[in-house]
Amino acid sequence: MKLNPFDPSKINVRRGGGGGGGMPGGKLGCGGIVVVLIGVFVFGMDPAQMLGTVEQMQGAGQQQQSDPANPNASVADVCGDSQYATEACNALASLDQTWQARFTEEGLGDRFVKPTLELYTGGTRTACGAGSASMGPFYCPGDQTIYIDTSFYDTLERQLGAGGDFARYYVIAHEYGHHIQTITGISGQIRSAQQSDPRNANRYQVLMELQADCYAGVWAGLNRNAIEPGDFEEGMTAASSIGDDALTGGRVSEENFTHGTSQQRMEALRLGLTTGDDRRCDEIVQVR
Questions:
Q1: From the CB of residue 69, how many other CB atoms can be counted at a distance below 10 Å?
Q2: How far apart (Å, rounded) are the C-alpha atoms in residues 152 and 85?
Q3: Residue-range domain boundaries for the chain
Q4: Is the pTM for the entire model greater than 0.90?
Q5: DSSP-derived 3-state class of residue 157
Q6: Cα(40)–Cα(29) distance, integer angstroms
Q7: What is the torsion angle, in degrees rounded to the nearest 10, for the CA atoms of residue 256, residue 134, residue 30 and residue 106?
Q8: DSSP class of residue 125?
Q9: What sign does the dihedral 283-26-12-7 (CA atoms) show?
Q10: Which of 120, 101, 117, 97 lies closest to 109 in space, CA to CA?
């Protein structure tokens, strides 16, 4: 996917690090489910227990202050650290522009707020608790920040078989989708539904993840002129690779899923990409 170079003056990016490890108490991203895979096949943990723990931690939200390493680093310096960092910043710039325009078209321009992207190494502190590279990319609603340790992209390609720039763009676009859910109030409605109907908490969580996948597709669909041959296939491979059923090898029952099956994730991404209409994504959660 050919994205325009980012303008350092128009994106919110910082370098992070130096925080403690552990599981963040905020919105766990599409990379977070990798912990389940590691727990099952490396540490021998029960996958159902792991998924349950992930779900509980997603709603915890300890309040801590950000403690970024090298806070005086310029946006250009942070985004120039590596190819992955530059890609992430280019994607963030495109996502900001696309979603701001979409909000304006819908008469909601005053509600749009750009998120911050923190590129960190190892661990970091967030408004949702301690973040760790082992969790993969995640979004924290407490500080409206997307957190990425770009080493995750190597894991995505080498361990999960999902390589290519579009696969990496899909990851950040998914986390950006959680930001959209936060500023529109959808995530708050989902959390309320989970609290009032705890037996179906995982089902609500899956719907929110699938909507974020769909939002990622909408961004790509609205930037179709930048899509290159093979991008669609890369996106479908990534979505399939991080489905709950794929990551747990069928050892976890569907009622314990938190992100959706491979098929569901592919369908959600495809819906957004082919329609380019976020209103179709809203039909997934049906809470508006």
A1: 15
A2: 12
A3: 8-285
A4: no
A5: helix
A6: 19
A7: 130
A8: E
A9: negative
A10: 101
